[in-house]
From TrEMBL:
Protein's name in the database: Ig-like domain-containing protein
Gene3D superfamilies membership: Immunoglobulins (2.60.40.10)
Lineage: superkingdom: Eukaryota
Xref: InterPro entries: Ig-like_dom_sf, Ig-like_fold
Amino acid sequence: MSRTATIDIRYWPWSILFISPGDTSDIADVIEDTTFVNRTCSADCNPDCSYIWINNTNGVNISYTPLLDLSKPDRYDAVSPSISITTSNCSEIVEKDNVTFSCNVTSNPVSDIKLYNMTDNNMLFTWNSANKGEYQFLNILCLDTGEYMFTAKNDIPDEHYIMKNTAYIEVMLKAIFTKDPEITIIEDRAEIHFIISGSLTQIIEENCVKNTAICHKANITVPTNQYLRSTQVPDIYDFTVDVPLADSEETEFIFSFWMYDGDDLLYQDANTIPLN
């Protein structure tokens, strides 16, 4: 009489393989809401193994099946797929306005946000680990006109995932004639005295704004160029233009006023000046 014995050999898993469709690598790049990836886990073990997936971000079990769906929006290592910029007072910005730049970033994990002034290549502010950045200009000046850029970057080590968006703002000069010019006729010339108010103090101090007064008379243009200087309280500019008279029958001048920053026209206004 013979006897047989069956031995059931048991052992721990000795190899684990991650597989995604069409890819045999261990790493999959997943972009939130734009990429669908399935990862499977297989192990050589006896008896059959059960599977536990661990989220490296928080260290908790997230699945008990061999199949892991990485398309869920709460997964880690998603990049910054969008960045948007809004500005207040965007229809027309004039000097001394308060202007706010707002940047909203969609990313997981959260991103570091930076704001740059592209005109002078200067970084203005950084928000660390944020999904929103807000920057306010108090009493904005026409010198702040230019292009601004927000960037967003999270901890994915790839330059491709630095998101950028730019906005351009133009700050209009704010200047008006405060009252009708005063005219004094002296023989063959007219001395025109007028006052303009505006928010030009910083610009004037940097000598970058030039006033051009032009008197139209019988299709003859007589330019008078000078730098503005504040002679009274700040933001009030009081000066006199001396204009020759060619025809005593003329009854009025059309006085035009320009302000330039270099060759760039910042502001233009006109006023009709009667001579009687």
